[in-house]
Amino acid sequence: MIEDHERGWLIWLVPPGTRDIWEPHRYGMCLGTPYELALPALSQTEAPGPYWLRPCRGDRLVPHHPLRDFLDRFQPGPIPHEDLLGQFLSSIA
């Protein structure tokens, strides 16, 4: 999981193909191609900039069903908007 404190975002890494089966959701966006995300260095574990809230490991990809359940219960804000999110994804470093 990546946190971008400046934008107020939590970014979960999900298994490949999740976007194809992700239903629209009020509290989360699932983006894939053509969007790209530059991941922070593995050693980046605190701000400034995006950082690893939980270290990256292949076994820590988040399955989409539990993530959707979490978003329904937690209801994080602000509610994402695809156009705004898409503009910023390519600028995350």
Protein described:
With 93 residues, the chain is α+β, with helices and mostly antiparallel strands. Helices cover 25% and strands 9% of the residues. The protein contains three helices and three strands. 2% of the residues are buried.
Which descriptors would you attach to this protein?
3 strands; alpha+beta; single chain; 25% helix; 93 residues; three-stranded antiparallel beta sheet; 3 helices
Q: What profile does the largest beta sheet have?
A: 3 strands, antiparallel
Unreliably modeled segments? none
Tell me the structural class.
alpha+beta
Mean pLDDT: 81
- Write down the oligomeric state: single chain
Individual helix count: 3
What distance separates the N and C termini? 15 Å
Q: How many runs of DSSP E, i.e. beta strands?
A: 3
Instruction: Give the overall shape, derived from the CA principal axes.
Output: globular
CA gyration radius, whole angstroms: 13 Å
How much strand? 5-15%
Specify the helix fraction band.
10-25%
Summarize the helix and strand pattern as letters.
EEHEHH
Strand line-up in the sheet with most strands: 2-1-3
